[in-house]
Amino acid sequence: MENTYTYSPLDRVIWDTPATEAILNEINRLGVEKVFIVSSSTISNKTDEILKIKNTLGSKFVGLFDSCIPHSPLENVIDCANSVQQNNPDIIITIGGGTPIDTVKVVQLCHSLGITTIEGLKKISNKHQKKASKIRQIAIPTTLSGGEYSIIGGAMDTKKQLKERYTGNDICPQVVILDPKLTLHTPDWLWLSTAIRSVDHAIEGLCSSSTNPLIPPMALNSLQLFARSLRDTYNDREDIFARSLSQKAVWMIAKNLGNTSMGASHGIGYLLGSIGSVPHG
After folding, report:
1. Where are the domains of the chain?
2. How far apart are the C-alpha atoms of 86 and 63, rounded to whole Å?
3. Which of 87, 96, 159, 278 is the most buried if burial means most Cβ atoms within 10 Å?
4. Structure confidence by residue, pLDDT tens digits, 80-105
5. Domain 185-276 adopts which CATH fold?
6. Residues 93 and 35 sit within 8 Å (Cβ to Cβ)
7. Among 3.40.50.1970, 3.40.50.620, 3.30.950.30, 3.40.309.10, what is the CATH number of 12-182?
8. pLDDT tens, residue by residue, 180-206
């Protein structure tokens, strides 16, 4: 419908706050008792961040899936969904880039619709699901691709080498936590390349023919922040203020996903990722 702006069911964004502090506050606010963690293997195996979160959760921690594979192959999504089903948590904490966040979006659909097989997943690809999620996620992004703000997830059919689209009314995270210090673990090439993905979103928003009054100014402001922060991060990767500005630039533009049409670059990105294992960006 024209002249309509749709907000995703994201409760809140918390910025410039240590992840463990924000997690504890949100777990108490939401009143959940069982928490499952999904993370990238790098964050889990090469840093102590997952251990910190587990210690913060204490007895509320019920399980971990840290075997996410880039581009979220359907087989990997089902493995994660089965692990979530076995542990029956109240909420999922997702930490990492677009891969674990997308994986959990599709896992939410599996959990809510009782899907346990790849064949079952294929039946709902490219078909929007309206059923309310039985479980939500708290996302702690470590890259700048911006998928944490949308109700769109992607998972790859490895036989076809094609990334399939999965959408649902509320599969976006319930809470997003932006901890710029945590992103110091992200390799520079990944941080900067995923930023280009969000720069692309901002340019598409700025150049869009949409009459939406929010998108052009937010896109321009996002580009202005990126123009400063990405140069500063490139020159000094320890610049936490610059990292924070980049995260806010993503927030400004990524929340508009779905409210403006995407250009050819978006479709090309999906194909390159599936066929050539090219990272987002």
Report:
1. 12-182, 185-276
2. 9
3. 96
4. 999 999 999 999 999 999 999 999 99
5. Dehydroquinate synthase-like, alpha domain (1.20.1090)
6. yes
7. 3.40.50.1970
8. 999 999 999 999 999 998 999 888 888
